[in-house]
Amino acid sequence: MGMMIGISFQSPTEGSPTLASYSRFFSNDLVLAGLARTVVMSGLVAFCVTVLAYPLAYYLARSTSRWRTVIFALAIAPELAGVVLRTYGWLIILEDRGFINSALMWTGLITEPLPLSKNLLGVVVGLTHVILPFGVLSLLTSLQSINPNLEKSAQILGASRLAAIRHIILPLSVPGIVSSFLIGFTMAASAYATPALLGGAGFKVMATMVYEQVLFYLDWPFAAVMANVLLILMLAAGFVGSRLESRLHQKLHL
Predict the structure, then answer these.
(1) Cα separations in angstroms, 103 against 34, 89, 91, 107, 129
(2) What secondary structure does DSSP assign to 20-67, as a single string?
(3) pLDDT over 90 at 55, yes or no
(4) Residue 160: is it exposed, middle or buried by C-beta count within 10 angstroms (0-12/13-18/19+)?
(5) Rounded to whole angstroms, how far apart are CA atoms 35 and 12?
(6) What are phi and psi of 11, to 5 degrees?
(7) pLDDT at 24 over 80
(8) What is the pLDDT of residue 127?
(9) Do 116 and 95 touch, CB atoms closer than 8 A?
């Protein structure tokens, strides 16, 4: 990391100390658009991962069914395959001649393929599938630490199951929700393979732009600047998340 910070202050031609790469970063509209695209993509992925993982983690934390082990294995099964393999699977499903568009056109519901890949939608779907097991594990740990007797006591006193979840389980699981969101955000922001394959050549995020600067343009100082900004973005997300969690704890008197 020290080398990366040092390289970012070097001139790409002379090697002398300079802030030219940082000035170029904050004055380049295409790069700033890539940074904004990274933030939007990571936020959407983190939201989708947390929303989809919560009910599954709650079932795994409370269920005593014999199917619990099977569902838990299915929840983490995607991690047994590589990211590139899973991304190619979604590419086959979402591309113009993929499974979804072919099925919709065969049934006559559409006449032209829907734009499901080579855009933000395709990348969010692919990354959500890749990161979902981590969100489930994060929320599962938090939900298992909540005493089930609290929920049972609320139901004995007349609260419905949904009311018990809303007023007891949900506030107590805030640390897990924040952790799931941060894991989803940081993993999506640093992902390369899925945005490159499902987003196509026109979908530029920070990770793909760093790759291009290092391998195609051989501009290591500018790539180091991009990497440093991406690192600061993740640290800022972690700081905001921890502060938000602390404030929610104080507000809910936990």
Answers:
(1) 33, 16, 15, 6, 21
(2) HHHHHHHH-HHHHHHHHHHHHHHHHHHHHHHHHHHHHHHHHHH---TT
(3) yes
(4) exposed
(5) 22
(6) -75, 135
(7) yes
(8) 93
(9) yes
User: In the chain, helix, strand, coil percent, each to 5?
Assistant: 75, 0, 20
| Reported confidence tier of residue 254, pLDDT bands at 50, 70, 90 | low
Task: Tell me: pLDDT of 253 over 60.
Answer: no
Place of tokens 């990211």: 83
The token duo for 66 is 């014999």
* pLDDT bucket at 78, cuts 50 / 70 / 90: confident
CA distance 23 to 38: 20
Q: Cα–Cα distance between 87 and 195 in angstroms, integer?
A: 9
SS3 of residue 17 by DSSP: strand
Q: How many residues does the chain have?
A: 254
The residue among 175, 216, 211, 233 whose CA lies nearest residue 41 is 233
Residue entry with tokens 């922001």: 189
